[in-house]
Write a structure and sequence with these properties.
This protein is an alpha/beta fold. 72% of the residues lie in helices and 10% in strands. It is found in: Membrane.
Amino acid sequence: MIGISLIPDLYNIIFLSSMWDPYGQLSDLPVAVVNNDKEASYNGNTMAIGKDMVSNLKENKTLDFHFVDEEEGKKGLEDGDYYMVVTLPSDLSEKTTTLSNIQSTAAYQSLTSEQQTEISDSVSQNSTDSIQSAQSIVALVQDLQGSLENLQNQSSNLSTLKNQSNQVSPITSTSLIGLSSGLTEIQGDVTSKLVPASQSIASGVNAYTTGVDKVSQGASQLSEKNATLTGSLDKLVSDSNTLTQKSSRLTAGVG
């Protein structure tokens, strides 16, 4: 009876010992990594995110990583050789070039036995942290590479700009000389045409002034003639009245 009651305890001791005490020694916990990623092109460069992640995980001692192919990983998972299989999909690099979320592309597979369920949360978290750390390193390297390429392009642009400025300098000098010559020619042409035109305008103004004076004199003479005519008409009316009076008297005398 005592022996039967000890069987579960002995089983747990044997099982946990076979799993390398995952509570205290996660660095000894075997995790298989399958890299199915294929290279992808980005801005003329070749990217291999899966390969870079594997290189970084080899330096990571958080877990006992084993780098195997898909068939070996599946068999080891079924046989209990690996606690978990992390599969990097074939389109990991391609999705990275299209700014897809890297963290969502890795496929995780793990055993589901009741004994391993107790430690699955702790192991999954540490495995995820390790993968994300590797991804952060890869992203940092890519940013550095992009910065270096950008710096190289800027240096090339500065060199090109310097050469263009050297070419522009004599062109600008020649253009300024031509512009000055053209302005001098235009100024001479304008002056030669403007002087006679101004003289013609002055002559026209003088003629107009003379004409206005003549009109003014004519108006004065007309006014004087009009006054004389008015005086003559007044005299004519007065004479006509006198004649009428004398005619009336003559008629009365005859009668």
